[in-house]
Write a structure and sequence with these properties.
78% of the residues lie in helices and 0% in strands. The chain has 370 residues and is mainly alpha-helical.
């Protein structure tokens, strides 16, 4: 009798436990990470080139350029709706589909940070060649490392410090030779403004990525594919609304047709470039946020830095930009910093295994002595 009662009590206790959602299998997590890396790559290479093309041929609206970074967010409605319909029948009890209040409010605030960051970034797109802009923007890895150390307590090794120093020197080299890269007909003051605004954008981007990782850590719910898509939607929507208000004040929407008529490549290509830039940049944002939520802010920064050489090649081929010795030196320092940071991460992952093996060998030695 006592045994039967104990069995019933254990069964009741198991039923009373809240349902724990199953962890996402490693192969699915890896697939989503690779997919987001591909989206980030496509968007980061194509987006800045199209945005720069807009400014090169007569575009002057910087808030419009910032607006295009996230204005493609409605495309996220389709995967969210499909996922919701699919989850109706398969979702286990106790799991949630929609964002918590914390995630929703945090995503709104993150969107404001992203909107301001996009505006700073638009100065670099307007006044700097893509090859210079991408090199200066790569310093966001250094800012991400610093903010990750302060906010999410990510360990700061001497490899990380080395990467920060190298990338900082790369930006300094470009800064000392600004006069060589100034596009024809553009004042040096605008180039200098674009240079420092891009550094500011890199700083805010590093802060944004780290705050996103912090939000993920404090979410209190499993970060599923559905949650990731909704977080991306709210962040992009908030950023777009942030950029829309100044556009209304400046009457950018009202004068859009006038700027299109004066565009160097023609009115049709004006709208085509803006639409393609919006799609490419939204893909970049989806990939970037997805990498952070699937991995970490530092890994997203590393991927961004790794894409700098690819951006350089496409800028030289498509926009006929020059590539001088200073850019080559800055690129070498950027890649060196990236390699240092990557090796540091490898060593950090390997260290616990070595320590565990040392502890086991020490235990065996002590048992042998006994």
């Amino acid at each position: 009798m006592e045994a039967e009662q104990a069995t019933k009590m254990s069964i009741n206790a198991e039923e009373a436990k809240p349902h724990q959602p199953a962890k996402k299998p490693n192969h699915i997590k890896l697939f989503l990470l690779l997919l987001n890396c591909v989206l980030l790559t496509v968007g980061q290479v194509a987006g800045p080139l199209l945005s720069r093309m807009y400014f090169l041929h007569g575009g002057k609206k910087r808030w419009l350029s910032a607006w295009t970074v996230t204005a493609g967010f409605p495309i996220l409605i389709f995967p969210i709706a499909i996922s919701y319909q699919a989850a109706k029948s398969s979702r286990p009890k106790g799991s949630r589909f929609f964002l918590t209040r914390w995630l929703f409010c945090a995503s709104l605030l993150l969107g404001l940070v992203l909107g301001f960051n996009s505006y700073l970034y638009s100065f670099g797109t307007a006044f700097l060649p893509v090859s210079v802009n991408s090199l200066v923007s790569s310093s966001q890895l250094a800012f991400t490392a610093v903010f990750a150390f302060i906010i999410v307590r990510q360990r700061f090794t001497h490899y990380s410090i080395n990467a920060v120093v190298l990338m900082t020197f790369g930006s300094i080299i470009l800064g000392f030779h600004m006069d060589k890269d100034v596009p024809k007909g553009e004042p040096l003051t605008k180039y200098v403004l674009g240079f420092f605004m891009t550094i500011g954008a890199a700083c805010f981007h590093g802060l944004f990525m780290t705050l996103l990782e912090y939000t993920q850590n404090k979410a209190g719910v499993p970060i599923t594919f559905d949650i990731v898509m909704q977080v991306q939607f709210v962040i992009s929507m908030s950023s777009t609304l942030f950029c829309t208000l100044p556009m209304i004040i400046n009457k950018d929407f009202e004068t859009l047709g006038e700027e299109a008529a004066q565009f160097g490549l023609g009115e049709g290509k004006y709208y085509m470039i803006l639409i393609l830039a919006t799609v490419a940049l939204q893909i970049m944002i989806i990939g970037s946020l997805g990498v952070v939520l699937s991995s970490s802010s530092l890994f997203a920064g590393i991927i961004t830095a790794l894409l700098v050489p690819v951006q350089q090649v496409f800028a030289v081929i498509t926009l006929r930009e020059g590539f001088n010795a200073e850019k080559g030196m800055a690129l070498a320092l950027c890649l060196w910093g990236f390699a240092s940071h990557l090796y540091g991460g490898y060593k950090a992952k390997k260290q616990p295994k070595c320590n565990q093996e040392d502890e086991l060998s020490q235990v065996h030695k002590e048992e042998g002595h006994v």
